Amino acid sequence: MTFKGLVLGTVVAIATLSAMATRANAQSASFDEPTVLETMDEVMTAESGDYSRDRSSLRQTAHYFGLGLPGRSAFPELELDRNSDAILEAYNELMLLQTQNTATIRVPDLASPYYTSLQSLPSAQSGTRAIGTELNFAPLPSR
User: Fold this and answer.
1) Over 33-87, what HEC string results?
2) Is the pLDDT of residue 25 over 70?
């Protein structure tokens, strides 16, 4: 009886554990936030809009008469000016994040084969001019 109970308990435990165990599934990465390029594109067209929106009759009328919200007229030059200001602000923010977000990594300089100058070679010193006088121009002949 005890052997049957032990076998039955083992079978029930294995069945329970196998029912609870699930197969490992790879997680799919879903990025809901826009990329940097998408964000810059949105910033670039925030005021003036894309081509199809900009060619509508309502937008053409707004461009002609400058109709818009108070303080934000719809003249194309002003819209582009506001777009450029927004792009500059976004660019400065990106540069700030890129340079000050992490610690500065310092690396040694790579070895360079350019430790000497061509003027220090013996063949360069065989001319008539002295080294360092290349910018001393000969005086112009008098007229």
Assistant:
1) CCCHHHHHHHHHCCCCCCHHHHCCHHHHHHHHHCCCECCECCCHHHHHHHHHHHH
2) no
Residue written as tokens 């061509």?
118
CA angle 55-59-64, nearest 5°?
110
68 contacts: CB under 8 Å, gap ≥ 6: 62, 74
Token pair listed for 66? 């400058």
Tokens of 9: 């308990």
Give mean pLDDT, residues 108-137. 65
Calpha distance 74→53 (Å, rounded): 13
d(C-alpha 9, C-alpha 3), whole Å: 10
User: pTM for the complete prediction?
Assistant: 0.47
Which residues, other chains included, contact 53 with Cβ-Cβ below 8 Å and sequence gap of 6+? 59
